[in-house]
Specification:
The complex is a heterodimer. By secondary structure, chain A is mainly beta. Chain A has no helices and 11 strands. In chain B, strands 2, 5, 6, 10, 11 and 12 form a 6-stranded mixed β-sheet that branches. Classes of the chains: A mainly beta, B mainly beta.
């Protein structure tokens, strides 16, 4: 069966510090991968998506970046965090062999607090 | 571009009462529609989904939703709410093709009182 992992689960970082959040998927190959941010009362905002290794598309301009060094690994990074980067970060994947389903499977999330 | 509106930010119901959460979408063609549930500090879990066919969709945990094309709605219902249903609920619309973009509503937080 497929599983998705995210770490760390929680993170408290000072403004201006770097960031690295990791997401890995097990039990599937060549998934589409997604990074979302969830801020209080604002639903889920799609940040990045990837359809393959090294292929990253950004939905919104920001000081975050994403990378996909391996098929089932998706990393969210920042060189200098802002207060506005605080939120709950969710990784998700779609099984492209069932692309007609369009169903996204979500990881447990990372709670980031920038102070 | 597609969009989703969940007009109720917060809903309170008594345990055992019926529940209906509203969702309206905007999309030019037949959409893929989803309802997800999120417990505090957790990821999202799929409750049910609609792609085509029968407009009344059954999901997990006793939930159902009805797709009404004429009203551009996909409301979530449960006949009798349990205290464990307290959570945040998200409606989403998906578009196939490309990278299968899914747009989420802002969520409805459900409180269940004894």
């Amino acid at each position: 069966s497929q599983t998705i992992h995210q770490w760390p689960a929680t993170l408290v970082q000072p403004v201006g510090s770097p960031l690295s959040l990791e997401c890995t998927v097990e039990g599937t190959s060549n998934p589409n991968l997604y990074w979302y941010r969830q801020a209080a009362g604002r639903g889920l905002q799609l940040l990045f998506y990837s359809v393959g290794i090294g292929q990253i598309s950004s939905e919104v301009p920001q000081n975050l970046s994403a990378s996909r060094p391996q098929d089932r690994q998706f990393i969210l990074s920042s060189k200098k965090l802002l207060l506005s980067d605080s939120g709950f970060y969710l990784c998700a994947w779609i099984n492209i062999e069932r692309v007609s389903d369009n169903e996204q499977f979500f990881g447990p999330g990372t709670r980031l607090t920038v102070l | 571009a597609q969009s989703v509106t969940q007009p109720d930010i917060h809903i309170t119901v008594s345990e055992g009462a019926s529940l209906e959460l509203r969702c309206n979408y905007s999309y030019g063609a037949t959409p893929y529609l989803f309802w997800y549930v999120q417990s505090p500090g957790q990821g999202l879990q799929l409750l049910l989904k609609y792609f085509s066919g029968d407009t009344l969709v059954q999901g997990i945990k006793g939930f159902e939703a009805e797709f009404k094309r004429s009203q551009s709605s996909f409301n979530l219902r449960k006949p009798s709410v349990h205290w464990s249903d307290a959570a945040e609920y998200f409606c989403a619309v998906g578009v196939s093709g490309g990278y299968q973009k899914v747009t989420f509503g802002t969520g409805t937080k459900l409180q269940v009182i004894p």
